[in-house]
Design brief:
Largest sheet: 7 strands, mixed
Radius of gyration: 13 Å
Number of strands: 11
Strand content: over 45%
Order of helices and strands: EEEEEEEEEEE
Helix content: under 10%
Structural class: mainly beta
Shape: globular
Distance between the termini: 37 Å
Length: 124
């Protein structure tokens, strides 16, 4: 049974920083590509960032490049997203996701098999 649990969301002022975390269990986490996605109610879920197994490569949406950093701690089965210089348009529900493959290649929703319940980030 694969379980992904996000935490760390909340309200933050524009220009501020926030780190969201994802705890992974029941899965060969260290062998899989992991990613962060976000969604607001009026839009489709979009890829934010992804990271290959062993942190070999990272991938970012253009809208967050230079502001967000994805990282993983394989010893703790944790995934992180550090978000800096936050903007109001970053307001969304943020989801952690896992792929069945070791490499990411992209941040497409259809490529990820396992999902968490999400954590809300509100920038004002």
């Amino acid at each position: 049974h694969v379980q992904l649990v996000e935490s760390g969301g909340g309200p933050v002022q524009a220009g501020g920083s926030l780190r969201v975390s994802c705890s992974v269990s029941g899965y060969n986490y260290y062998r899989r590509c992991m990613g962060w996605f976000r969604q607001i109610s009026t839009k489709e879920r979009e890829g934010v960032a992804a990271i290959d197994t062993g942190s070999a490569s990272t991938y970012y949406a253009d809208s967050v490049k230079g502001r967000f950093t994805i990282s993983r701690d394989d010893a703790k089965n944790m995934l992180y997203l550090q978000m800096n210089s936050l903007k109001s348009e970053d307001t969304a529900m943020y989801y952690c996701a896992a792929r069945k493959l070791r490499t990411c290649a992209s941040i497409q929703v259809a490529d990820f098999a396992y999902w968490g319940q999400g954590t809300q980030v509100t920038v004002s």
